[in-house]
């Protein structure tokens, strides 16, 4: 027997460091803090305002404000002030805003938050967050396998720090689209960024391989982390 897919890097999600029930919340104190750190550290070039962070990590506003203050006090993240036009954003009710009228539009001062790239343990914290993704991957795999029959699943793109790859995740098998989208949405909240995914039934996957589909070939040839592979053929 041999694998249909060549050049794969297999990862056993059961081999994640720590006890089976270990979570970063145990280390950092709260799920909100972990999600904030994961989002901000994964996007060090970006600044986020409070309500944007609240939506992205699906947390309570007061909880997000409290954790932001703690992280600013520690020095892990920075608080900066900026201005945006109201018609470029739907967050019009932030308590920290100072509004002035400019040409009939609201010019709004907001407090933004971003990772502090010169923090003493910046790279170490980023490394911890990236390694913890193994645990998130395990939860995601469990969820999709409960909701469908998955034959092949791998991570690439942003998960291997290569944003040039056209997709971050390939899923092959049988699963309802609504269930898959919900699982992806939950996964995005946990890892702190959007996931560009590709889904196809097993028959389509095999057909595309046979005709040497360029898109699929480019995904299969890139570096990847294979989490599920039940696609085998008899020699």
UniProtKB/TrEMBL annotation:
The organism's superkingdom is given as Bacteria
**Database matches in SUPFAM superfamilies:** Winged helix' DNA-binding domain
Q: Which InterPro entries match?
A: WH-like_DNA-bd_sf (IPR036388), WH_DNA-bd_sf (IPR036390)
Q: What is this protein called?
A: HTH arsR-type domain-containing protein
């Amino acid at each position: 027997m041999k694998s249909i897919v060549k050049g794969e890097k297999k990862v056993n999600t059961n081999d994640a460091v720590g006890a089976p029930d270990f979570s970063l919340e145990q280390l950092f104190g709260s799920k909100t803090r972990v999600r904030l750190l994961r989002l901000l550290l994964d996007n060090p070039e970006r600044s986020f305002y409070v309500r944007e962070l609240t939506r992205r990590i699906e947390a309570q506003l007061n909880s997000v404000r409290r954790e932001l203050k703690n992280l600013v006090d520690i020095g892990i993240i920075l608080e900066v002030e900026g201005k945006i036009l109201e018609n470029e954003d739907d967050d019009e009710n932030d308590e920290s805003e100072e509004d002035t009228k400019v040409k009939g539009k609201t010019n709004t001062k907001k407090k933004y938050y971003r990772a502090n790239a010169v923090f003493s343990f910046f790279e170490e914290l980023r490394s911890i967050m990236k390694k913890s993704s193994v645990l998130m991957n395990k939860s995601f795999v469990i969820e999709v396998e409960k909701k469908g029959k998955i034959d092949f699943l791998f991570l690439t793109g942003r998960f291997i720090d290569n944003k040039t790859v056209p997709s971050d995740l390939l899923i092959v098998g049988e699963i309802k689209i609504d269930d898959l989208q919900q699982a992806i949405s939950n996964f995005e909240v946990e890892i702190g960024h959007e996931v560009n995914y590709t889904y196809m039934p097993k028959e389509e996957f095999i057909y595309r391989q046979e005709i040497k589909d360029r898109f699929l070939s480019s995904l299969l040839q890139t570096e990847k982390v294979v989490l599920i592979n039940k696609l085998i053929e008899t020699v």
